[in-house]
Amino acid sequence: MISAFSRLLLLLVFTTLLTGHLRGAEDDAGSIFIEGYTNQLSYQPGEKIRLHLSSSEPQYSIEITRLGAEDKTVFKETRKNGIAYPVPEDASSNGCQWPAAFELTIPDSWASGYYSVRLGVRDRGGKFIQRNTRSAESSLFFIIRPKQPGSETKILIQLSTNTYNAYNNWGGSSLYSYHGRNHLQGHRVSFDRPLAGQFSNWEYPFIAWAEQNGYQLDYAANSDLEFHPELLKHYKLVLSVGHDEYWSAPMRDHLEEYIRQGGNVAFFSGNSVCWQVRSEDAGRALTCWKQWYNQDPVFPTDDHSTLTTLWSHHLVNRPENQLTGVGFLYGGYHKSHGQFMDGAGAYRVHRPEHWIFAKTGIKQGDEFGSKDTIVGYECDGCQFVLQDGLPVPTFKDGTPKTFQILATCPAKWAPGDSLWYDRFEKDRVGAAVLGMYTNGGTVLTVGSTDWAHGLRGKDPIVQQITKNVLDRLSQ
Prior knowledge:
Elements lengths: L3 H27 L3 E5 L3 E2 L4 E8 L4 E8 L4 E8 L11 H4 L5 E6 L7 E10 L12 E10 L10 E5 L1 H6 L21 E3 L12 H10 L5 E4 L2 H4 L9 E7 L2 E3 H12 L3 E7 L4 E6 L4 E3 L33 H4 L2 E8 L12 E3 L17 E2 L8 E5 L2 E4 L2 E4 L10 E9 L16 E11 L1 E5 L5 H6 L3 H14 L2
Parallel strand pairs: 2-8, 9-11, 9-12, 12-14, 13-15, 14-25
Antiparallel strand pairs: 1-3, 3-6, 4-5, 4-7, 7-8, 10-16, 15-16, 17-20, 18-19, 18-23, 21-22, 23-24, 24-25
C-alpha cells in the first residue's frame, strides 16, 4: 500500500510532467507570434514611421510592399530586438501602449500609395529539425501621402480607414457585437492596436485596375480629410471606394466645402457616410455610440450636431444624402442579410443618354454588372417616385435638387435593423441608386459597396463607365 505522502508526491510529479507536456504542446502549437501597428495612418516622404511590435521571438523580419497593379517590395530587414508585451484589457478602446521597436524615415522615392508590412518570425533557437520549424506571420499597413500633392495627378483616393477600425475586434471589441468579446458592442476603438483592414476586398481591385489602365492616384486616409484638409485644393476629383461607412463632422465639412468650391467627388462605394464618429486622441481613436446614442455624452446637451449615430437620424438632421446624393435609409441590402438573395446583382439603366454611359452601347431597361454582382452587400438610395415610368427623386430626404437617377437595383433593410430607430418605415423596399448631382462641383454615387468587383472581373460596361467618370471629372 502506498502511503498518503507517497501518493501526494506521485500526484505532484505526474501533474508536473503532464503540465510540462501540455505547456510544451501549447508552445509547439501556438505561442509563436508577432503583431504590431504604426504610430500614424499616413505619412509623407521624409517623415518617420514607427512600428510598435510585440514578438515571441527576438529575431524577426520586416518586408514592406507597395500594393498596386504590380506589387513592389521596397524594404526588407531582419532585426533582433523582438520582445513580447502584454495585451491590456482595454486594448480595443485605448490601445496596446507597446513601445516602438522599429523606426524608418520614408525615402522621397517611395510613391504615394498603400503599403503592406509583412512581419515574420521563426522558432526559437532551431531546437526542431527544419521540417518541423514553426513560423508565424502577420501584416499591418500604412499610407504614404504625396510629398507634393497634385503635382503628378489630379485624382485623390481617400481610403476607408475609419471603417477598417470600426470592424476591428482585435483586443476585445469593435463597434459591433457579433464578434466582440462576450458579444458586447464597443463604443470606442483605437488605432493603437493591430489592424488588418478591408483594403483587399474593394479598394485593392479598384486601384489595380486604375493603374493597369494608366490612371495615377494620390492616396490619403479617411482622417486626412479631417486633419489635412489642405490636401483637397490640389485635386479635381476625390474618390471613395468600397465600404466607406464612418465619417466625422470635420471630414464632411471639408469635403462639402471642396464641392462648393468646384471640386468633384465619385463615391464608387455604398453604405457611405452612414455613421457619424468623433475623432479622439489626435485621430488615434474613434467614438461611435450608434444605436445606443442615448448613452453618448452629447445626447443630454442642447447640441446634437456631433451625436454619434446615423447621420440621417432626426436628432442629427444631416442625412448623408446632402453629400452623397443617397443614403442607407432608402437603400439596404442586396444579396446579403437575407434580402434579395436571388437578385441579379445588377443595375437597370433608366437614362442611357447620360454621358457616363458613353461608348457602352447600353439602352434603357438594360441591366449590367450581374456577372460580378456589382450590386451587393450594402446599398444606398434615395426616396423617389415614378414619372412616365422613370424614377425621379422627391428631394424630401436631403437629396440635392439637381440629383438625377441613372440606374437602380432593389435593396431592403434587414428586419431587425429598424427596431431601434422609431422613425424608420418598416418593410420598406428601397434601391441601390446610381446617380449624379452638381452643386459647384459634380458628385457621382453608385450606391453599392461592390462596384469594384466589376473592375476585378473586367466587365466592359463597368470599366467604360469608370473610365468616363475618371476622365471627365479629373479635368
